[in-house]
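Chapter review: from sequence to fold.
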Amino acid sequence: MLHKAERRTTTTKTVKETEAEAIAFVIGKAVGLETGTKSADYIQLYHGNASLLAESLEVIQQTSAVILAALQPSVPEAAEQPEQEQLAVAS
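The token string follows.
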């Protein structure tokens, strides 16, 4: 997603790596992965910092939201699940 965005051609490698790792961190936390300090270590490796993260926050939030939404089951599937479970219990 980020690699295809138009602004990617105008940003530095530090910005690209910081944003990508921050998004990976957000997604990992949201799905329950234990990340420890790996993301912070990686961001520091590419000379990212808190200021850069703050500047990139909108991109990080928007991209993370798109990915997390894609990971969610669709509404009809989620609505059918309890009904299917009730049928299985009743049988």
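Two observations follow directly from the output. The longest helix spans residues 13-30. Residues 2-90 form one domain.
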